[in-house]
Specification:
The protein is an alpha/beta fold and about 300 residues long. Helices cover about 40% and strands about 20% of the residues. It is built from 13 helices and 9 strands. Strands 1, 2, 3, 4, 5, 6, 7, 8 and 9 form a 9-stranded mixed β-sheet that branches. Helix 3 packs across helix 13 (about 285-300) and helix 4 (about 100-115) crosses helix 5. The N and C termini lie far apart (about 50 Å). It holds the Pfam family Abhydrolase_1. This is AB hydrolase-1 domain-containing protein. InterPro entries: AB_hydrolase_1, Meta-cleavage_hydrolase.
């Protein structure tokens, strides 16, 4: 493993932390009970006049790597809260619970502990599962919900098809790559461009060691602990809030057809916005369009 000063991933992490801090956020860790500690980014100076907005990351690197362009865009108009889910970064628990529902309860406890009474949610992929459950369980706290690239209506067969498409044996190998070929497979279904094919192995190994290796066994347990996608029946209840679905038109993890099906079952007031020429991470591939869509949704009257 290369020392930090030779690691691009480590150097870029310094840049990302600078982006968060220069946007008025600082990082903290809080015990939310049940021997669970959540690491998160929150406003250094809270402004009561601003609405509260929570960004919940997907599987993969910590929130710092997934929401940089959103933090910089939304910080002037919102009090932003950006947690790292349990077993990502410095968030941890001694509980044996591993479901996305436990993640949702933990994030809700964090916000309650901080005195954040009302907020809107933006969750991507696995973070969309968590956001859905927070909105479902705490409707009195959640104002609006953005579910981005997140097949909350996932079935068991969808996971099997994804692994087959990636030409791997297990979902763990795809979501938690251990070698360059695994990471290329993940990028192959997560992004629309193919420039990553030119990245040398030593570069990919650096990313794997810095962004995916930590707590790998615990994260495998998180994948096994999912309540969503355990069989081929969709068992989700509609949400009470206004919901926005944001999807890349080339998403291979959760294909666009899943978004169209989800629109009909997740609630009464559900809008679907499609970001063209993007795959599973439109918030990174076309941040300007992604941010504009979400801002319009959040600023619109109920």
């Amino acid at each position: 493993m290369a020392p930090s000063f030779l690691s691009f991933a480590s150097l870029y992490s310094f840049y990302l932390r600078h982006c968060f801090t220069s946007s008025g956020l600082s990082q903290k860790s809080i015990n939310v009970g049940d021997e669970t500690i959540i690491h998160f980014w929150a406003p250094t100076q809270l402004r009561q006049s601003k609405p509260n907005l929570v960004f919940i990351h997907g599987f993969g690197p910590v929130s710092l790597w997934q929401w940089r362009q959103q933090v910089q865009f939304f910080a002037p108009d919102f009090n932003l809260y950006v947690p790292d889910l349990i077993f990502f970064g410095d968030s941890t628990t001694k509980s044996s619970e591993r479901s996305e529902i436990f993640q949702a309860v933990s994030v809700a406890k964090l916000l309650e502990t901080l005195g954040v009474e009302r907020y809107s949610l933006v969750g991507t992929s696995y973070g969309g599962f968590v956001s859905y459950h927070i909105a479902r369980m705490f409707p009195e706290r959640v104002e609006k919900v953005v579910v981005a690239s997140s097949g909350v209506n996932m079935k068991k067969k969808n996971n099997e098809e994804l692994v087959k498409k990636a030409k791997l044996e297990k979902i763990d190998d795809l979501m938690l790559p251990q070698k360059p070929s695994d990471l290329r497979a993940l990028l192959g279904v997560a992004v629309s461009k193919r420039s990553f094919l030119m990245i040398p192995d030593f570069f990919l190994n650096d990313f794997i060691n810095k962004l995916f290796a930590e707590n790998r066994n615990k994260k495998v347990e998180l994948l096994s602990g999912l309540t969503i996608g355990q069989d081929d029946a969709v068992n989700i209840s509609p949400l009470q809030q206004d919901v926005l679905l944001v999807w890349g038109d080339k998403d291979q993890v959760f294909p666009l057809e899943m978004a169209k099906d989800l629109q009909g079952i997740i609630g009464k007031n559900v809008k679907l916005e499609i970001v063209k020429d993007t795959s599973h991470v439109p918030q990174i591939e076309n941040a300007a369009e992604f941010n504009k869509i979400i801002k319009n949704f959040l600023s619109a009257s109920p």
